[in-house]
């Protein structure tokens, strides 16, 4: 199975659900732009959309076969990572560093692995969102 960048929330959640059903060696990483409402108010929606599109492309370039990315909301991206918890956590850390280097705006990120969190795709995504914290090294200001 190839890596996939899917735009829609429903398509992304279906990919996560499939991965969890296939054995649970799956994790979800969530990346969101800090102060997205402020960016929209100061610079307009097109600027935020452009930033999210650029971040989405960078995520897609780093995916391995069987992984996927997609928009969870207009200001948040989800990434399906495959592997055991330690391997997935390492991949998540690398993606966070790569995204942080692409923007002057701060990022928040969260991670949850199916083996450590019960439930389906929605629950896994919510666990990742609940674990969200600022990405170290993200720069202030837009």
Task: Quickly describe the structure.
The protein is of the alpha+beta class.
Keywords:
23% strand, 142 residues, globular, single chain, six-stranded mixed sheet, disordered C terminus, alpha+beta
Taken as a percent bin, the fraction of beta residues is 15-25%
Average pLDDT, all residues: 82
Q: So how many helices?
A: 5
Secondary-structure element string: EHEHHEEHEHE
| Estimated structural class | alpha+beta
Q: Could you tell me the number of beta strands? A: 6
Instruction: Give, in spatial order, the strands making up the sheet with the most strands.
Output: 1-3-4-2-5-6
Residues in helices, as a percent range: 40-55%
Main sheet summary: 6 strands, mixed
Distance between the termini: 37 Å
The backbone outline, from C-alpha atoms, is globular
Overall radius of gyration: 14 Å
| Poorly predicted segments | 138-142
Explained architecture:
The protein is α+β, with helices and mostly antiparallel strands. 46% of the residues lie in helices and 23% in strands. The protein is built from five helices and six strands; from the N terminus they run βαβααββαβαβ. The protein has helices spanning 9-21, 36-43, 45-61, 85-102, 121-130, and strands at residues 4-5, 26-33, 68-73, 76-82, 107-113, 133-134. The chain has a six-stranded mixed β-sheet, with helices on both faces. A hairpin with a 2-residue loop joins β3 and β4. α2 (36-43) crosses α3 and α3 (45-61) packs across α4. The longest helix is centred in the middle third of the chain and has 18 residues, at 85-102. It starts with a strand and ends in an 8-residue tail after the last strand. Mean pLDDT is 82; it is low at 138-142.
């Amino acid at each position: 199975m190839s890596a996939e960048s899917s735009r829609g929330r429903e398509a992304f959640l279906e990919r996560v659900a499939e991965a969890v059903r296939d054995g649970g060696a799956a994790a979800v990483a969530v990346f969101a732009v800090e102060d997205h409402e402020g960016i929209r108010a100061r610079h307009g929606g097109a600027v935020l959309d452009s930033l999210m599109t650029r971040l989405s492309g960078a995520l897609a370039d780093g995916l391995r076969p069987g992984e996927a990315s997609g928009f969870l909301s207009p200001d948040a991206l989800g990434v399906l990572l495959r592997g055991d918890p330690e391997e997935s956590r390492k991949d998540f850390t690398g993606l966070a560093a790569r995204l942080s280097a692409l923007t002057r705006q701060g990022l928040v990120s969260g991670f949850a692995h199916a083996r450590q969190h019960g439930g389906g795709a929605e629950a896994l995504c919510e666990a990742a969102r609940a674990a969200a914290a600022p990405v170290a090294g993200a720069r202030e200001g837009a």
